[in-house]
Design a protein that fits this description.
Radius of gyration of chain B: 16 Å
CATH architecture of the domain at 4-145 and 222-256 in chain B: Alpha-Beta Barrel
Oligomer: heterodimer
Number of helices of chain B: 12
CATH architecture of the largest domain in chain A: 3-Layer(aba) Sandwich
CATH class of the domain at 4-145 and 222-256 in chain B: Alpha Beta
Helix content of chain B: 40-55%
Structural class of chain B: alpha/beta
Strand content of chain A: 15-25%
Distance between the termini of chain A: 56 Å
CATH topology of the largest domain in chain A: Rossmann fold
Largest sheet of chain B: 9 strands, parallel
Order of helices and strands of chain B: HEHEHHEHHEHEEHEHEHEHH
Number of strands of chain B: 9
Structural class of chain A: alpha/beta
Shape of chain A: globular
Number of strands of chain A: 14
Largest interface: A-B, 38 and 39 residues
Shape of chain B: globular
Largest sheet of chain A: 6 strands, mixed
């Protein structure tokens, strides 16, 4: 079995053209992850620029209203650029710079990863090109303009379903065309080795902080940590430092769209099958001939037919559980947390909040849930209004 | 042993590609037989995949046309069955790993064995991952074709030594598609390949579309592979493309003689 495996998952299923680049990336990462100067620079950026550590906020009103477990929010939405994506991007762009690259490319779904990449590229003086499905450039028009303001070129991808998977396809094609000066800043814990490991490591700061914060506030570990899952980067970040704490339940929330028994969902663990795509062996939504399925979610960031290989492994061994949350439940949660806590969170994160609304009342007052609020929801306000049939005029 | 070596016994080889099921099953059978009649030495039959990340726009669109028209992996086996009723030309499949994986390696390659499919090209299966496929394919005498790219450098030796059937030399960075200018130093790539694997034929693909290019590259390699240019003709003429495909393939093979 080749490198970068999580059980049977993972691996390096990519064209030969990219193999040496991937090997170089792995070597560079293995070196710099232990390099003091690199870590000092990254930690300074995370603290002084991104605003880490992020708050662990006790959602008292939600807790009282739901009448069960104590609910804490890990406030990744308060990071610079408004989501957890900046954690990974600062690490990867800094790494790319150390490798002598002058240009970064990235895929984006909701636009959060694209905005974060464009931001890091502006700060660290790198040329930047973002690939985004045309469908998503419409759903998330505000983020397109943000990326352009930051100096990035945004390419609207018109192939396939014109969403996140097609943006990944196009970014991979562009990378195979130009590896010499270009690093592909993959945005999730997916793709060929070493990306799932690199992205997980850079995102693991979420659970490193959360674990320390909850021990300080409560003197004990949480009963459950939960996060939304598309490719799975904020969930992996939220889970990672709790994996060895066997008493802590790890719960990922997938997008069920119109429902997992319809053909409009993106619930990979619930409905997907083992496959090989985008450089990795993992679970994918696909048809009987292995054609990748056109998935759907109201959330552009969860609208992806696969899941990172480490999640697939955590599912296989029963360490993590994965549940499905529909569009309707997510939108209700989006509105609920806004009215209850005064927080407008990303529609992606609202999938995790929806699950908390479901399970918290069934748990005891001694239980603690930490939910990763992976991003802020400004970008989603227009789409939620549309969903509710409200016309917004500029 | 597969019949791939036969493809290189008639001077420099012309290897033609088409996407199975574009525009329909019957046309694919007809075009493959026309290519053989025009002098093609080996045919690559593309099993369409929803997300062909190594393809340029021409083959991407052909893949989607074929899938929309209902082509499936079983449909491609039907094409191969009908071709085999009339022809023993060396045949390779070209596709991505997921359709093969999902079909089941054992089931897929046993069918290949029955139909005397000689090889398979899987762009998202690099050397490091090859074993899981070749361990099954080899039992049915199907060669898993190795690709070598302009970025392979010191990997050339390892890959070439392990290669069976023929070596697919990727001429350019990026994806498949017609190019007027190929800037890779193919001469030194081929020299390194030949040093490591003197007895394995090496054919150049990616970007080749004119008889002049075919002639030029045949001087350093054992054959040329042409995909997008043929698929483009099929895109333009649809089910009436047979004579155009014949003329084109003939002009390319003539340039190699």
């Amino acid at each position: 079995m080749s490198k970068g495996r999580f059980g049977i998952h993972g691996g390096q299923y990519i064209p030969e053209t990219l193999m040496n680049e991937i090997i170089n990336l792995e070597k560079a990462y293995e070196y710099y992850k232990n390099d003091k100067e690199f870590n000092d620079e990254l930690n300074t950026l995370l603290a002084e620029y991104a605003g880490r550590p992020s708050l662990l906020y006790y959602a008292e009103k939600m807790t009282k209203d739901l009448g069960g477990a104590k609910i804490y929010l890990k406030r990744e939405d308060l990071n610079h650029t408004g989501s957890h994506k900046i954690n990974n991007v600062l690490g990867q762009v800094l790494l790319a710079k150390k490798m002598g690259k002058t240009r970064v490319i990235a895929e984006t779904g909701a636009g959060q990863h694209g905005v974060a990449t464009a931001t890091a590229a502006a700060l660290l003086d790198m040329e930047c090109e973002i690939f985004m499905g045309k469908e998503d450039t419409i759903r998330q028009a505000l983020n397109v303009y943000r990326m352009e303001l930051l100096g990035a070129k945004v390419n609207a991808v018109t192939t396939g379903t014109m969403t996140l998977k097609d943006a990944v396809n196009e970014a991979m094609r562009e990378w195979s065309n130009r590896v010499e000066d270009t690093h592909y800043v993959l945005g999730s814990v997916m793709g060929p080795h070493p990306f799932p490991t690199i992205v997980r490591d850079f995102q693991s700061v979420i659970s490193k902080e959360a674990r320390e914060q909850i021990l300080e506030k409560e003197g004990k570990l949480p009963t459950m940590v939960t996060a939304c899952v598309g490719g799975g980067s904020n969930a992996m970040g939220m889970f990672y430092n709790f994996i060895n704490d066997e008493s802590v339940r790890l719960v990922g929330c997938e997008a069920a769209g119109h429902g997992i028994d319809t053909d409009k969902h993106a619930a990979t663990i619930a409905k997907g099958e083992l496959g090989v795509f985008h450089g990795m062996k993992s679970y994918f939504c696909q048809d009987e001939y292995g054609q990748i399925a056109p998935v759907y979610s109201i959330s552009a960031g969860l609208d992806y037919p696969g899941i990172g290989p480490e999640h697939a492994y955590l599912h296989d061994i029963g360490r993590a559980e994965y549940v499905s949350v529909t569009d309707e439940e997510a939108v209700n949660a989006f509105e609920y947390i806004a009215k209850t806590e005064g927080i407008i969170c990303a529609i992606e994160s609202a999938h995790a909040v929806a699950n908390v609304i479901k399970v918290a009342p069934t748990m005891s007052r001694d239980d603690i849930i930490i939910v990763c609020l992976s991003g802020r929801g400004d970008k989603d306000v227009a789409a939620i209004a549309r969903y509710r049939g409200v016309n917004l005029y500029e | 042993m597969s019949k791939i070596k036969n493809a290189f016994s008639n001077g420099k080889a012309f290897i033609g590609f088409l996407t199975a099921g574009d525009p329909c099953l019957e046309s694919s059978v007809e075009f493959i037989l026309e290519m053989e009649r025009a002098g093609a030495d080996l045919i690559e039959i593309g099993i369409p995949f929803s997300d062909p990340v190594a393809e340029g726009i021409v083959i991407q669109e052909a893949s989607l046309r074929a899938l929309s028209a209902g082509m499936t992996t079983d449909g491609v086996f039907e094409i191969a069955t009908r071709v085999r009723e009339k022809s023993q030309i060396p045949l390779c499949f070209m596709t991505y790993l997921n359709p093969v994986f999902h079909y089941g390696y054992e089931k897929f390659f046993s069918k290949c064995g029955e139909l005397k499919i000689d090889g398979i090209i899987i762009p998202d299966l690099p050397f490091e991952e090859k074993e899981e496929v070749s361990s099954v394919a080899s039992r049915y005498d199907v060669d898993v074709i190795s690709l070598i790219a302009p970025t392979s450098h010191e990997r050339i030796r390892t890959i070439a030594k392990d290669a069976t059937g023929f070596i697919y030399v990727v001429s350019s960075m990026g994806v498949t598609g017609m190019r007027s200018d190929i800037t890779t130093d193919l001469g030194s790539m081929l020299a390194a390949i030949k040093e490591a694997a003197p007895d394995t034929p090496a054919a150049i693909g990616f970007g080749i579309n004119t008889p002049a290019q075919a002639k030029q590259y045949s001087e350093i390699a054992d054959g040329v592979i042409v995909g997008s240019a043929i698929v483009k003709i099929i895109e333009e003429h649809g089910s009436d493309a047979a004579s155009y495909v014949y003329d084109y393939v003939k002009s390319m093979k003539d340039a190699l003689r």
